[in-house]
Design a protein that fits this description.
By secondary structure, the chain is mainly alpha-helical. The protein has 11 helices and 4 strands. The protein has a two-stranded antiparallel ribbon with strand order 1-2. It has a two-stranded antiparallel sheet with strand order 3-4. Helix 1 (3-19) packs antiparallel against helix 2, helix 5 (107-127) runs antiparallel to helix 10 (243-261) and helix 5 (107-127) runs parallel beside helix 11 (286-319).
């Protein structure tokens, strides 16, 4: 995914938490996170893009590449039932087969590590005396949180979990991500000089009213409609106990979505400008893939941020 897509998804995750029907206790945790985010929102575009712009670990930590295998079938994990990736993948023929993971691809590990780093740095802030040279700043912690959202979102781009090389040839991978970013730039006001969205009265990216007619036909409207209709839950999904488990499950179902969009037997050189969204045997359209990736990414970022924040606040309360 590209710069503005990452930042927009982060904002939508916070908006999702703001509108979620949560228990009274969880509402307090969510509201604290929402306020903290809003105090640092001007850095979200730069921070959420830091993994691509500076760290540049795209060949390892932004992906978990999988290949179908004839070995004994592995058991797929679970996701929350509301997830489009889960609903699309649970009946996939590939779900009955095994898979192997490309060596050196470690997206779930990266997410787990950053999630711990956010909590650790918040704890250091709490325990170090004022003016301590080793105490992290709020901006540092915010950057870690925004970076975490980048890696979480990348798991929802199916080609990040598919070992086939669709970044070669016509480069379908890049074309899809460019189309997504163009959609964000088409409908939301961005100050590209200061690297931030312009905001509406509620503090979220400002929708360009003049684009309302085009928005009617945009998959972004479909994303908004689906999220409005589905319940947000804070659980990881059955059998998942932490960020690593959850992200591993996401990558598994993103891999299945990749094969639903690009059927087995399709080679990189078979994909062209004219046929990429009409491949033989395709069971998922580009529009549905986009809607699924965005809806699920928003919920995943919201869920992980919420649980990281809640874990820290619970620690803080026990300490006091």
């Amino acid at each position: 995914m590209k710069k503005y897509t990452h930042a927009w998804l982060a904002f939508k995750a916070i908006e999702r938490l703001a509108e979620a029907d949560l228990s009274a206790a969880n509402r307090k945790y969510a509201d604290g996170l929402i306020q903290w985010f809003m105090d640092h929102r001007d850095g979200v575009i730069q921070g959420a893009w830091y993994p691509d712009a500076v760290i540049k670990d795209m060949a390892s930590s932004h992906i978990l590449k999988m290949t179908p295998s004839d070995q004994a079938a592995k058991k797929f994990k679970y996701l929350p039932r509301t997830y489009h990736l889960y609903q699309s993948g649970k009946n996939s023929a590939l779900k009955k087969k095994s898979f192997v993971i490309d060596p050196g691809t470690n997206l779930p590990d990266r997410c787990e590590a950053i999630a711990h780093a956010v909590i650790d740095n918040l704890k250091m802030q709490e325990t170090e005396h004022k003016g301590s040279p080793i105490a992290p700043t709020d901006n540092h912690v915010a950057t870690l949180l925004f970076m975490l959202s980048h890696y979480v979102a990348d798991a929802h781009m199916p080609l990040h979990c598919d070992s086939r090389r669709f970044s070669e040839g016509w480069n379908l991978h890049a074309k899809i991500e460019a189309l997504w970013d163009d959609e964000i730039k088409k409908f939301y006001a961005i100050d590209k000089v200061s690297e931030r969205f312009l905001y509406d009265p509620y503090g979220y990216p400002l929708f360009i009213k003049e684009s309302q007619q085009d928005y009617t036909n945009s998959f972004l409207k479909e994303v908004a409609q689906h999220l409005a209709e589905r319940k947000f839950t804070v659980g990881w999904g059955r059998g998942n106990n932490n960020v690593w488990d959850f992200m591993s499950a996401l990558c598994q179902y993103s891999y299945l979505m990749a094969y639903a969009f690009i059927p087995e037997g399709i080679r990189e050189e078979d994909v062209t400008r004219d046929n990429w969204d009409n491949l033989l045997g395709q069971t998922e359209s580009f529009r549905n893939l986009s809607m699924a990736a965005f809806c699920d990414a928003i919920d995943s970022i919201a869920r992980i941020w919420f649980r990281v924040w809640r874990k820290y606040i619970r620690w803080e309360r026990k300490r006091k």
